[in-house]
Specification:
The structure holds two protein chains of two kinds.
Chain A lengths: L1 H7 L1 E6 L5 E6 L5 H7 L2 E2 L13 E5 L2 E3 L9 H5 L2 E3 L3 E3 L3 E4 L8 E2 L4 E11 L6 E8 L16 E5 L7 E4 L9 E7 L5 H12 L5 E8 L12 E6 L3 H14 L5 E7 L12 H9 L4 E6 L9 E2 L2 H13 L8 E6 L1 H14 L6 E5 L4
Parallel strand pairs in A: 1-8, 16-17, 16-20, 17-18, 18-19, 20-21
Antiparallel strand pairs in A: 1-2, 3-9, 4-6, 4-8, 5-7, 10-11, 10-15, 11-14, 12-13, 12-15
Helix pairs in contact in A: 5-6, 7-8
Chain B lengths: L28 H26 L5 H12 L9 H28 L19 H8 L8 H4 L1 H26 L5 H15 L5 H30 L5 E3 L7 E6 L3 H10 L5 E5 L10 H4 L4 E4 L7 H7 L3 E4 L15 E4 L8 E3 L19 H9 L15 E3 L3 H6 L1 H10 L4 E7 L8 H8 L5 E6 L13 E2 L2 E2 L1 E5 L4 H15 L8 E6 L3 H12 L6 E3 L8 H11 L2 E2 L3 H9 L1
Helix pairs in contact in B: 1-2, 1-3, 1-4, 1-7, 2-3, 2-6, 2-7, 6-7, 6-8, 6-17, 7-8, 8-17, 15-19
Chain lengths: 362, 568
C-alpha cells in the first residue's frame, strides 16, 4: 500500500525567482498548491478555486487543469505554460517556476492574529472609499510589531466566523502593530455592510482576525531605474505601501504614481491619507497623477484612464535615444491591469519589468 | 563574475575563484561585478587625488569617501546592487571634483596638468545594465592572458591588502583618527593599481609598503578606541542572557555600540555584543553602561542560528553579515558600509544632504530601539543557562602591566613558550585545526588570541600559568597592533629580536582585513608564521614560493606536528 502511494506520488519541483528550489510530492487527485501546503509550504495564493489568479505560475510537464476563470488564466497563457497551481493536477513530474521570491513562501501555516479596529474613515468625496485602521494583538514571534513587504495582502474575518475578504496592505511594516487597508464599499457586500455598521456607530470594541501577510506582489530590487506605479481604485493600497516604504528607506528610484478612478467623487483625498502625501513629498521628484475616466465639468486634471497616461509617458520615453524603461507596477481591476500590461509591452518595456496584481473576485 | 578575495572562494574548478552566478558568500553576480566597477572608478579618484596632493591641494574628504567605498567591497559587507550603482555614480562625481581641484592647483602653480589614462578618464554608464557591460572589462583578472597569473595574484594581494587598510582606516576615521599620510598612501596604492603594474618586485614591495601603512592605521584605530573608550582591562563577560528586551550588536564598530548604549539608557533594554564586538566589554567607558549585558552566540558563521534565536533587534555595524534568514529578516538592521537587499539600513534619512559614507556624529538607532521594545525579549527560561563567562581584556597595557612577572616566569622556566593564535573564523571544517592546536598546548605555555578565530577555543578551560590566565584575549583583529606591541616589548625585555622570542604565530585568515594584518607582520620581518586553514587562492604556487623563501611562511598542517615544531 505504502509503495503504491509512493509510486503514485509525482515529484514537483518549485523554483522561486531567487533560485531557491523546493521539492514536494503530489498525490493523485491533489493540486500542486495543496500538495505544497501539505509539505509545509504555503505558496502565494488566495481563492484556491481558480478565480483570483494569485497562484499563477509557469509549469513544465503534463498536467490536468481544473475549472477556472478565463480572467485568472487566459487560454493563451495556458498554452505558454501558464497555470493556476490550485487547479494543476500533475500527470507526470512537474517543474514549476514560481513568480515570487523564497521569502514570500510561508513555512507552516498562514499566520493569524487578532486585531482591534481603531478607525474606519471615509477618504473619498463620495464617502464610499474608506481607510480601515487596525491594531494587531502582540504575538510570540513579532511581539508588538507587524512585518510585511509592500504589495502583500491580508485576509480579514470576524472572530469565530468563516467568511474572509482579502485586502492589500496600504501602510508599511512597523513596530506598533498598525495595519491599514483601503476598501471600496460595495452595496450588499458582506464586509462592506460590516464596515458601514462601524462607520455609523464607531468601531469601539470591534475586532477582526487578520490572516497573513500573504502574496507575491512587491518591489523588485534591481538597480535605480524609475518605478512607475499604476493604480485603479483601491489598487492604490499596495502601491501606496510601496511609496511609503521607499520614502522611509530613502530609496533612490524616481517614482510616478498614476491613480485612476471612474468619477472624481471616488478619488482618494491625499489630505486624508497624510502619510502617503508626506512620502510623495519626501521622495525627490515623485509625481502623482490622478486620472478621472468619466470627469464632470469641474475636473481639471487628467481625463481618461491611468493606462492612457502611462501609454502617453511611455511614448515620450520611447522617443528618446536609448530609453531606460521603468519598472512598471500595476494593481487594480483585471481590465485595467491587462490594459496597462499591454500598453507597457506595446511601448517596448521588457516583460520582466512589468509586475501586476489583479483584484479579482475571490 | 570573478572573485577570489576570501578564504572560502570556490576551489572546485580549475581556475580557483567564484565565477558562476554567485559567490560562496552569497553575493550575486550583479553585485560582484558592480563592486569591480566601483574599484575601477575609485582608482580614478586616486589618480587625481595623488596628483592633487603632490601639488599641496589634497582632498581629504575624497580620500575619506574612498576608505568607505572600499570597505563596502570587503567580504560579507554589502550585497545590495542598488547601493553600488549609487556608489559608482557618486565615485565618478568625487573623481571629477578632485580632477577640478588638481587642474586648478596645477594652473595656479603654472604646472601642466597631467591627464592620466585609464580609470581617471572612465565614464560610468547611466544604467545598471550598461554598467554591467562595463564591469566585464575591469575585473581583477582583466588582462590575465597577457600578464599571467603571478601578476594577477600580486595585484590582488595589493588590492585586497589595501581593502583591509581602508576598512581599518574607516573605523579609525569614524573615531576621529585620520592621518594625511594614510590618505596619501591609499591614493598612491590605487594610483599604482590604475597603472596596471606588471613589475613583480615592485608589486611585492608595494604589498609590504601597505603592511607598513596598515601598522600606522591600526595605531590610529587603537588611539581611537582607547582614546574614546579607555584602556581595555581584564573583564569577565556574561554569556547567559538576562530576562527582558534586547538588542544584539554585531560587527566591529565601537562607536555604533556606544551610540546604541547611550540611546537605550533607562529604557529597560539590555544590549548584547556578538562576534567581534566581544572585546568591547573590556573598555571602561563602554562597560560602565549597566545595560551592556553580555555576549551572545558564537562567531559570525553561526549567525543564522544565533540570530534566529535572538528575541530582539539585531544591528550589523560592519563585516560580517551573511544572508539574513526569514526568521529574523525584519528585525536585523544594517548600518555604515553594510547592506543586504530588503534589510532595513539605518543611515541618513531620505533627502538627506549628508555625504555618502560620511560619519559626522553618532548614528540615530531609534528604529532598532523601537524594534527591541516591540519584540518579546528574553524570558526567565532563556536566562536559566549555565555558560561560563568569557574572560577578556588582555590588551597590551594589561599584559605589559604584568611584564616583569612574565619575564621572570620565562627566566624561571615557568613559561616556556608563547603562541599567538588568532585571525578570522569561518565555516570551513579545517578550522577545527585551531581548536586542536590550542587545546593541545602544554600547561607551561601562554596562548594569546585575537579576532573571531578565538571562538574556536575560548570556551575551553586553559587554566593559569605563573598567576596569569593561560588564554589571553587581546581583542579584535585590529588589536594585532596591541599584540605587536607586546611582542616588541618582550623582545626588548629579553634583549633579542621578535623572531628570536619563544613565540609562534599561528594565524587564521578569512577576508581582506586579515590580508592587511598579514602584510603588516611580513613587513615587520616576522618569520615562520603558520597560516590557514588554506592559503589564499590568489597566491599562485610561484608567489607562495616567494613568501616561503623570504618569510618562511607555512601553511598549517597537522596540529600535533605543527605544535611539536613550534616547541622544538
Amino acid at each position: 500500500m505504502t509503495s503504491d502511494v509512493l509510486t503514485d506520488t509525482l515529484p514537483v519541483t518549485l523554483t522561486t525567482t531567487d533560485g531557491v528550489r523546493i521539492d514536494v510530492g503530489c498525490a493523485p487527485g491533489t493540486d500542486v498548491l495543496a500538495a505544497a501546503a501539505e509539505a509545509g509550504y504555503v505558496l502565494p495564493s488566495l481563492c484556491r478555486k481558480g478565480t483570483c489568479g494569485a497562484c499563477y505560475a509557469t509549469v513544465e510537464g503534463a498536467h490536468d487543469v481544473g475549472p477556472h476563470s478565463a480572467e485568472a488564466l487566459p487560454p493563451g497563457a495556458a498554452a505558454d505554460g501558464g497555470a493556476l497551481l490550485c487547479r494543476t493536477y500533475p500527470r507526470e513530474p512537474l517543474a514549476v517556476a514560481l513568480r515570487c521570491e523564497d521569502s514570500r513562501i510561508i513555512r507552516g501555516s498562514i499566520p493569524e492574529r487578532g486585531a482591534g479596529v481603531v478607525a474606519v474613515e471615509p477618504v473619498s468625496p463620495d464617502g464610499r472609499t474608506v481607510r480601515v485602521r487596525l491594531h494587531l494583538d502582540p504575538d510570540d514571534v513579532s511581539g508588538a510589531g507587524v512585518e510585511f513587504e509592500p504589495g502583500q495582502f491580508v485576509e480579514v474575518s470576524l472572530p469565530g466566523q468563516e467568511p474572509r475578504r482579502a485586502y492589500s496592505l496600504a501602510n508599511v511594516a512597523n513596530w506598533d502593530g498598525e495595519v491599514e487597508l483601503l476598501v471600496r464599499l460595495q452595496p450588499g457586500g458582506w464586509f462592506s455592510e460590516v464596515l458601514e455598521g462601524w462607520l455609523a456607530t464607531g468601531p469601539a470594541g470591534a475586532r477582526l482576525v487578520v490572516h497573513g501577510p500573504q502574496g507575491a506582489f512587491g518591489l523588485r530590487e534591481n538597480g535605480i531605474r524609475p518605478r512607475w506605479l499604476v493604480a485603479g481604485g483601491t489598487g492604490l493600497a499596495p502601491l501606496a505601501s510601496m511609496v511609503r516604504r521607499m520614502a522611509e528607506w530613502g530609496d533612490p528610484q524616481p517614482v510616478r504614481l498614476y491613480l485612476g478612478v471612474t468619477t472624481a467623487a471616488e478619488l482618494p483625498d491625499l489630505a486624508l491619507l497624510p502619510e502617503l502625501a508626506e512620502a510623495l513629498d519626501l521622495l525627490p521628484g515623485a509625481v502623482l497623477e490622478p486620472c478621472v475616466w468619466r470627469p464632470d465639468g469641474t475636473w481639471t486634471g487628467t481625463a481618461g484612464t491611468p493606462v492612457d497616461a502611462l501609454a502617453r509617458d511611455l511614448a515620450v520615453l520611447g522617443g528618446t535615444a536609448g530609453p531606460e524603461w521603468p519598472d512598471v507596477y500595476v494593481c487594480g481591476p483585471p481590465a485595467l491591469v491587462d490594459a496597462a500590461c499591454a500598453a507597457a509591452a506595446a511601448a517596448g518595456v521588457p516583460a520582466d519589468q512589468v509586475h501586476a496584481e489583479k483584484y479579482l473576485p475571490a | 563574475m570573478f572573485c577570489f578575495q576570501c578564504e572560502q572562494t570556490d576551489r572546485s574548478l580549475p581556475l580557483l575563484g567564484c565565477q558562476v552566478d554567485h559567490g560562496t558568500c552569497g553575493k550575486d553576480e550583479t553585485t560582484a561585478d558592480l563592486q569591480d566597477l566601483l574599484i575601477h572608478v575609485l582608482q580614478g579618484v586616486a589618480q587625481y587625488g595623488t596628483r592633487a596632493r603632490a601639488l599641496g591641494a589634497p582632498d581629504d574628504a575624497a580620500a575619506d569617501f574612498v576608505l568607505y567605498a572600499m570597505f563596502t567591497t570587503l567580504t560579507n559587507v554589502n550585497f545590495t546592487a542598488t547601493r553600488f550603482v549609487q556608489l559608482v555614480t557618486e565615485a565618478a562625481k568625487v573623481r571629477d571634483r578632485v580632477r577640478a581641484t588638481y587642474e586648478a592647483a596645477a594652473a595656479a602653480q603654472g604646472v601642466t596638468a597631467e591627464a592620466p589614462a585609464g580609470p581617471a578618464a572612465f565614464v560610468p554608464a547611466a544604467t545598471m545594465d550598461a554598467m554591467l557591460l562595463q564591469a566585464a572589462e575591469v575585473g581583477v583578472r582583466a588582462g590575465a592572458e597577457t600578464v599571467g597569473d603571478d601578476v594577477v595574484g600580486l595585484r590582488a594581494l595589493v588590492l585586497y591588502g589595501l581593502k583591509g587598510v581602508c576598512a581599518y582606516a574607516h573605523h579609525a576615521a569614524v573615531l576621529g583618527q585620520t592621518d594625511p599620510a594614510v590618505f596619501a598612501a591609499v591614493e598612491s596604492a590605487l594610483d599604482f593599481l590604475a597603472s596596471a603594474p606588471t613589475d613583480v618586485p615592485a608589486l611585492l614591495e608595494r604589498s609590504l609598503e601597505l603592511g607598513r601603512v596598515n601598522l600606522r592605521v591600526m595605531e590610529l584605530l587603537d588611539a581611537g578606541n582607547t582614546g574614546t573608550y579607555g584602556t581595555p582591562e581584564p573583564t569577565a563577560v556574561r554569556r547567559v542572557p538576562l530576562p527582558g528586551k534586547a538588542i544584539l550588536v554585531s560587527g566591529h564598530d565601537l562607536r555604533d555600540l556606544a551610540a546604541i548604549l547611550e540611546q537605550t539608557k533607562d529604557l529597560g533594554i539590555n544590549v548584547y555584543t556578538h562576534g567581534e564586538l566581544l572585546p568591547a566589554h573590556a573598555y571602561p567607558l563602554l562597560k560602565a553602561y549597566p545595560h551592556l549585558a553580555g555576549n551572545y552566540g558564537g562567531a559570525w558563521q553561526d549567525q543564522q542560528v544565533d540570530f534566529a534565536r535572538f528575541p530582539g533587534a539585531i544591528v550589523m555595524t560592519s563585516n560580517c553579515i551573511i544572508e539574513p534568514q526569514p526568521a529574523y529578516r525584519s528585525r536585523i538592521f544594517t548600518t555604515g558600509p553594510v547592506g543586504w537587499p530588503g534589510v532595513r539600513h539605518i543611515g541618513p534619512a531620505a533627502g538627506s544632504s549628508a555625504p555618502i559614507g560620511g560619519h559626522e556624529g553618532p548614528t540615530d538607532f531609534r528604529l532598532a530601539v523601537k524594534a527591541a521594545l516591540a519584540l518579546p525579549g528574553f524570558t526567565d527560561v532563556d536566562a536559566a543557562g549555565d555558560l561560563e563567562p568569557f574572560t577578556i581584556g588582555f590588551g597590551r597595557d594589561a599584559i605589559l602591566g604584568a611584564a616583569d612577572a612574565v619575564v621572570q616566569a620565562v627566566k624561571d622556566g615557568a613559561i616556556t613558550h608563547f603562541f599567538l593564535v588568532g585571525g578570522c573564523d569561518g565555516a570551513a571544517p579545517g578550522r577545527n585545526y585551531y581548536t586542536d592546536f590550542t587545546t593541545a598546548t602544554p600547561a607551561d605555555t601562554v596562548v594569546m588570541t585575537l579576532g573571531c578565530a578565538k571562538f574556536r577555543f575560548n570556551d575551553h578551560d586553559f587554566g593559569t600559568v605563573a598567576g596569569l590566565p593561560r588564554l589571553l584575549d587581546v581583542g579584535q583583529c585590529n588589536d594585532s597592533y596591541s599584540a605587536i606591541k607586546v611582542a616588541v616589548a618582550l623582545a626588548e625585555a629579553f634583549g633579542c629580536e621578535v623572531n628570536d622570542l619563544p613565540l609562534s604565530l599561528v594565524l587564521s585568515w578569512f577576508e581582506q582585513k586579515a590580508a592587511a594584518v598579514l602584510l603588516t607582520l611580513l613587513a615587520l620581518g616576522i618569520r615562520d608564521i603558520k597560516l590557514g586553514p588554506t592559503l589564499p587562492a590568489f597566491l599562485t604556487p610561484a608567489l607562495v614560493g616567494v613568501l616561503v623563501e623570504q618569510f618562511a611562511l607555512a601553511p598549517v598542517g597537522d596540529p600535533a606536528a605543527d605544535l611539536a615544531e613550534c616547541l622544538a
